[in-house]
Specification:
single chain; alpha+beta; Cytidine Deaminase, domain 2; 4 helices; 25% strand; CMP_dCMP_dom; catalytic activity
């Protein structure tokens, strides 16, 4: 069940999404530890990082952007992740993390993931209860060789 505090953090994740230069898929993410925002981010066009967290992708996902910021601060435990996706019309869309982001999150001690489901509801899941097989359209394009990664 989502609290008023969860709703406030989702609003902040939505604000982060509006900062994304990728206008057709604007995603924002907030990382919270013990009630304090420790990192914010949005999806962007970065496709490589020396830390290895960005790769084989057409963009840096909002979740990865936030996890990289957490890693730089040595924050790897008890993290709550809030993810919001906004359409070009300003509507909230499904923002459940993709399989690649989920696998990266496994390297951290994520407590819960809060996101918008396909019905437009805000959902809060314990990380251990969250499962996905969703592959993004960008990843599918790479896998089918419609797009080449540099």
């Amino acid at each position: 069940m989502c609290s008023n505090t969860d709703g406030r953090y989702m609003s902040l994740a939505t604000e982060e999404a509006s900062k994304s230069p990728i206008t057709n898929f604007q995603l924002g993410c907030i990382a919270v530890v013990s009630g304090k925002i420790v990192a914010r981010g949005c999806n962007n066009y970065r496709t490589y990082s020396k830390d290895g967290m960005i790769g084989q992708s057409c963009s840096c996902h909002a979740e990865i952007s936030v996890l990289r910021k957490c890693m730089k601060q040595n924050i790897t435990k008890k993290i709550n992740i809030y993810v919001a996706r906004v359409s070009t019309m300003g509507d909230m869309l499904c923002s459940a993390p993709c399989i690649d982001c989920f696998l990266k999150m496994k390297e951290f001690n994520i407590r819960s993931i809060i996101y918008i489901d396909h019905s437009g509801n805000t959902v809060k899941r314990n990380f251990d209860d969250f499962h996905t097989s969703h592959t993004t359209s960008g990843k599918k394009a790479i896998l089918t060789k419609r797009v080449k990664c540099l």
